[in-house]
Amino acid sequence: MAAFTKRLLEKAIHHPQIMGHGNLEAKDIAFQTHVHYGIPSTASILAFDSIQGLLAIGTLDGRIKVIGGDGIEGILISPKQLPLKHLEFLRNQGFLVSISNDDDIKIWSLESHSSVSCLHWESNITAFSVISGSSLFYIGDECGLLSVLKFDAEAGNLLQLPYHIPASSIDYVSRISSLRQCPIVGILQQPPPSGNRVLIAYESGLLVLWDISEAKAFLIGGDNILQLKEKLDFISDVSHNLMTEQYLGEKEISALCWASSDGSIFAVGYVDGDILFWNTSNASSHKIQEGNAPSSNVVRLKLSSAEQRLPVVVLQWSPSDKSRNNSDGLLFVYGGDQTGSGDHLTVLNLEWSSGTGALKCIGRADITLPGSFADIILLPGGGIRGDNHNVDAFVLTNPGKLHLYNHANLYELMSQQEGKTMIPGLEYKSLIPMSDPLMAVAKLVNLPPGECLLKDLVEMSSDVITTETGNTMWPLTGGVPSELSPKIHVIDRLYISGYQDGSVRIYDATLPTLSFICILQGEVQGLQLADSSAPVSCIDICISTLSLAVGNNCGLVYFYKLRRSMDTLNFHFITESSHGVHPLPPERGYCRAVFSLLKSTIQSLRFANLGTKLAVGYECGQVNVLDMNSLSSVFCSDSQHGFNSSVISMSWKYCSNLNDILKTSKHKEISAPVSPTDEVLFVLTIDAKVYLVNGRTKSYHYLQLKKKLRPISMYVIESKLSPSSKQLANNASTDQSSPECFQVLDDSHNVEQSSEDPHSGDALSCSHLLLCFEDSLRLYSTRSVIQGYNKTIRKVKFTNPCCWTSTFKRHEIHNGLICLCQNGVIEIRSLPDLGLVKESSLMSILRWNYKANIVKTLTSDGSQIAMVNGDELTFMSVHSGEANLRNIKCLPCLHDKVLAAAADAALNIPSLQKKKASASGILEGIAKGFKLRKGVRHAEYTLNPKSSVAHLEAVFSKYPFSDASPIAPNNEILNSSPNMANEEELSIDDIDIDDTIPSTSASSWKLENNQNLTGTEREKLFEGATDVSEPRIRTVEEIKAKYRKAENTSSVANDAKNKLLERQEKLEKISRHTAELQSGAEDFASLANELVKAMENRKWWHI
């Protein structure tokens, strides 16, 4: 009968009614990442916006890292985990173009941090190039087809324009039949003044300099066409070589770049290690391929005389600061050296002799890289921003290391060094260090909003210890901080990180852009402390008093008071046998005490009772309770009575009726003073024991759980139970017999009774104790555990071993549990029923593979998780209610609109000045009459950057090899005839539409119209000179005197706006007049039909 009653009570304890159901639903969970610092280890490709000062880094897993200035960083994550093979900015426009391995062309908005357009290309994209200053770009594919695409920012669409160059067209002009399936491996837009040409490189070695406007090849070279002579002089270890003419043969192209600022010379790298320089300044379109091209236009460069050389993978050219012409500069080469020469980057200082065209290498430097090469990108020497002119090259190496190489240092190195060397490039340093120094532990803390906390932390950041200012020479300055005003900003979240060198850094993590507050060193000024530089192992903070405790691997516990005090302070150094006191000045008074009680790693720290008590758990299993008012130890565990296994977790709770809970057959003999509130310390050790320490009496006992289980964490969670459920739980726990493993051990320490705490003690007896193990979750009644019973009321097993857990609250009640498994799976479970609500993975959210060291720096406060993986730090939100970080206004803007507008204005000022002084551009001033549209477009293109883009768009709007119909902006086909190209086009600006028509007879209207035709219009056209029969060509001065106006940038913008409004009004009038004419024509036809019928019925004599 007794056994049956026990089983019945056990079923009652396990009944789900006791714990209730969690109120967490899948719709409440949303995994999102808005905070990201550091460079991913899978970084592979670079892009740079020289105007905005932004650097983009593409990865092998579909992510794009964007880095600006002042700690502004962003991450763009593609849904597909595929490598990016092409990445470029639409410069100064706030958009980024990426192409993945599956040929998805994606446009990213830097303002919204998201993708705004995507287009899938049917064939394999092998080359890509953005036309500078525009939203146009070239696409080259494996079939040899060159296509043109345009991004319409207003509509958010990617459009393929009619202009394209198939391989068959190149076959025809080059008389080569092998291009039909030859991929395009490189596309380069020629720099001004010949910006209407594009260099197309085919894999077989054929090079075509194509004139966009004239739709013909300006220069064709390579692919068995050329004989060449080597004419390269080296002042370094390579001797002067002059070789006899040799046949070029097929050479597979692997890299190319422009090697002059005016686009007259380009360099081509080949798979066999050769580098050829092609000079196009003497080329002419009518001499293409009439026999072999002259060898004086091509020079070959060899980095090594070895027969087996590496392919030339990358070529980049930068103009020289002291260049005497447009061709002198530095050539950056990766590859081309002999096989097995190691991973290094070669920099050549090249000069072209004036007159003879001979190429000389006056300096060479082989830079040994800190890792395997990934990519390189050069920075422009000047630009609109006026950045540091010495900054030259960003070099990306694996895994995810970015270095900046200074232009001046490279020149100095080339003039001094012999052989390969490791040049000290400036390494990118993230705002939050993760590997140098190595981060060991971290803590994310929510602060209650308050002016006092804000004031104290801000004052602390202004004068405490050491402030990190970052790299002063770093050229990235882009991005705009959050739009939230600093006047209303309060600090409500801190991120605290501890490092292997013993230092601690504190950051304001309120907004997605973290800001540095201070760094706390392990050393105390003026005092020699042993083991002060030991790695930090544990951190805890009391948010009500701004007290910070830091433990290290050698057993030291640092106690900091972050609140400012102007009084003279003392520093206390407490050991097992001594208590030293040393005065400290107020400005260095943040470290109040250091405790060195045991030589064992600190595993856990927990403040209690508003920061007046601190529990310290050691790796050896010992537990100390410190009084932070008297700075002394008030409790120390005894290893002979337990506490001999490493501490895993600790938690303080309050209970007002602890004596009533302990009144069992085993506890009746225990006499203890009655206290309104007792502090209970729960301690979980690695051998699955739970110790309970009475903070007032210092008595403790433990409960042995399953010995074979490896615990991870422990939580005491509140639970709202119905009265019937609460009574059932109380009856079940009190009726059970006490197990043998329950012990009560009294400590002889006599301490003062702790002060009464406002927390309700009844909450502890109604709460649950959640123990998280590697293989399962186990839920206990806290009341039963205090009484020594180890029966679970809920148990859930993991499919994969768990390594880390954290709880989060909603409305001050624990309602969710986050579990990270060793395979990278993240589970969200509801509390207290432990039901699975949603799951995801580190790979799908962050593109991270699970690593064991991730757990060391995992921290969570609420539904925000901060984690570090290598050189990456991210904050991940799991709860959809986190509106603070979800609000787009809180995110830093990666595109500076004010800077973009200023840059556009600066670019347009010289163009406007030239336009005022140009006679060809003044043709637009003739308001009445017809215009030759082609001539006007050409004038605009050669003068104004925006006009050149408009010219290109007009050219790209039709197919270049036939009289195909042009494409209107709305992609509608316009009617045209083969002779339309030679006819004059009527512009909308040339149409005059009168709002009112005089009410006159037909004869009078005809007379007035004839007079207008013969008089007014003729006078307007010929300026009153009616005796001439042909138009007179007026001088530039006459045109300027009549039509020129004093303009500036703002007036030009207003005129353009007014012109657009006038055009819109004219179009509306045309539409209305067309409708009126159509209606009038219908009325006239109806009257005519009625007249015909009436006349048919009449006889001839009636007429």
UniProtKB/TrEMBL annotation:
Xref: SMART domains: WD40
Keyword terms: Coiled coil, Cytoplasm, Exocytosis
Domain of life of the organism encoding this protein: Eukaryota
Main localization (coarse): cytoplasm
UniProt-annotated location(s): Cytoplasm
GO MF annotation list: GTPase activator activity; myosin II binding; syntaxin binding
GO biological process: exocytosis; Golgi to plasma membrane transport
Coiled-coil stretches: none
InterPro entries referenced in this protein's UniProt entry, alphabetically: V_SNARE_CC, WD40/YVTN_repeat-like_dom_sf, WD40_repeat_dom_sf, WD40_rpt
Annotated V-SNARE coiled-coil homology domain residues: 1038-1102
Gene Ontology cellular component terms for the protein in this record: cytoplasm; plasma membrane
PANTHER family: LETHAL 2 GIANT LARVAE PROTEIN (PTHR10241), TOMOSYN, ISOFORM C (PTHR10241:SF25)
Protein family according to the UniProt entry: Belongs to the WD repeat L(2)GL family.
Name of the molecule in the record: V-SNARE coiled-coil homology domain-containing protein
